[in-house]
Amino acid sequence: MTDVARFSDPELARGILDEIAATVTRPWSIMEVCGGQTHAIIRHGIDTLLPTDVRLIHGPGCPVCVTALEIIDRALAIASRPEVVFCSFGDMLRVPGSSRDLYSVRAEGGDVRVVYSPLDAVRIAEAEPDREVVFFAVGFETTAPANAMAVHQAHQRGVENFSVLVSHVLVPPAIEAIVTAPDCQVDAFLAAGHVCTVMGTDEYERLADQHRVPIVVTGFEPLDVLDGIRRAVHQLEDGRTEVENAYARAVRAPGNEHARRMLDEVFETTDRKWRGIGPIAASGWRLAPEYRRFDAEQRFEVADLTVNENPACRSGEVLRGVLRPDECPAFGSSCTPRHPLGATMVSSEGACAAYFHYRGAAAATGAT
Asked: Does domain 66-170+255-299 fall into CATH 3.40.50.11740?
């Protein structure tokens, strides 16, 4: 527990680590619910610097990773249609469906385009009125306001050849599913600061009170994560179960009121299936009735398409925090970033990808 040179402020990092070591008196397990935090932890070796009594568990914090396999296959079916321009952020193109990915569709002649904003897809639809333009709306609460705005703009401007394939998932129901699961090993949570920047902290107050679990809202820089762990350990040792905002420079309790109003107008909550985890009640958004005509699942009649997961992929256990990536038999052998079995090895925020990129051969052999 001596290598803090990789931190921007090594002295501060050492002080926080020393405080954690002096505070902890028994084993505790803390889950970070953000893929960016997972990558900060693995890249900077935070888990190896902590006292052995503090164990970090990687949660379902990667929206690409938890996008259900059947949603990927629906995207592939839509993108393969000759009249469709299928628009997506780049991180979705290599996520495997049951037999191929969006890159394969593009290689076979499908018009699959990488965009940097959902509003880019609206502009494409306006410029190409004879094509059907579909945007793949994936993500947690963070990306949802821009996607809601795109649908709202299409509605306002009468762009009827635009639609969205919606796969938005919500963090609080996932935390509740984890903490109420019979195999739950989590004593405290680090909540994702960017999600709370949009949604605020109100929903987490209920979770902390009802399930008697500390929740610390924190950012993604290594020192942010380390500070969040410090605060969580103090709460656990004190017997407190509070929502603590360690990211006050960006997060306010009510969140972003303008973004939340747009979300409430365009979306409504729905049950959502999470890849590798299964259905979680009221854990996603779908288009509200006034905007339902922009729903690509209905427009292209793919809503009934369902598929089964690859049985060799154990990403669901990784996403629930009951299996570490390097404990999976397929990790680094039959599952690599070049030939992934699941999205946790593809996404830039996936836990399996983090282990592979930052720990390489050592992780693949189970070493630490």
From this structure: yes
